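Morning. Coffee machine broken again, so started the prediction first thing and wrote up yesterday's gels while waiting. Chain of 307 residues, entered below exactly as on the submission form.
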Amino acid sequence: MAFQGTWRVIVNPAAAVGRAGRRWPSVADLLSSRGIPFAPVFTTCPGRTAELAESSVRDGFDGLAVYGGDGTLSTAASALCGMEVPPVLAHIPSGTGNDWVRSLGIPRSVPGAVELMKKGFSRRVDTGVCLADGEPRFFLNSAGMGFDAFVLHRALRLRRVLPLGKSGYLASLVASALFPPVWRADISSGGDLLHSGAYFTLTLGVGRYSGGGMSLSPAALPDDGLLDAAWILPVGFFTIAANIPRVFDGTLLELPQARGHRAAAFRVEPKGDLLMELDGEFQVFSSPPSEILFRTGPGLTVIAPEG
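Came back before lunch.
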């Protein structure tokens, strides 16, 4: 049945290096012209985003839409997963990555996403939960360890100096690939040891895409109750450079150094340094966790085309 309720729209004006804020008036006009009932609220930080999402049902809204990037969307979705009956979730993409909508086949253009809201098509999709030494952390689309988080960390530091969007991530990717580091961990699922020792990068995906269109979990399906784990053994610069197309065309697992497994839960025991990101947000730990558990979390009803 098509969704016909009223929307609270969380607007992050800082998304896409401020372009979202400048474009919001035209987005609001488009929502109004399509006859979509909505009330906008503005956020400036994750805490405010979570607060607005948590109060959406109490304030009388049946749906929650996010006009912002993947980080704002993930924060709002995390708040919804704590509700007994959460509102329907929609995303009007305005960030630099837009990986979640890409994974679900939601249009990445604002007019396309708004038209989908107008039609009201909805479906149930999975989410993910990461527990690091007992502390739960939510992810909507993907979790990355190793090189993925290393590149993100460098890109975030670069953005503090230069106002770069997606190009900052690409610059960090190239620079990091010149001298790729190596991490170590034991990876297991259901009591079976899948990997022990050195690895280059590890992704656990609810959705197929992360990092701005990279297909790092190419076997992932967003509604099958499973996480798609893909990891790559240590590789050098020339191997990375020669196989960049595989990162984007869905053939990553054809790389001889690639491994994959799909399951509802995984255990990762880091051996030494740990770098991790969830939905493109770099994670900070008070102390290095001895083990990290990843599992599928409570699902959400979202505005998206049929699978």
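The longest strand covers residues 292-303. Going to sketch it on the whiteboard this afternoon.
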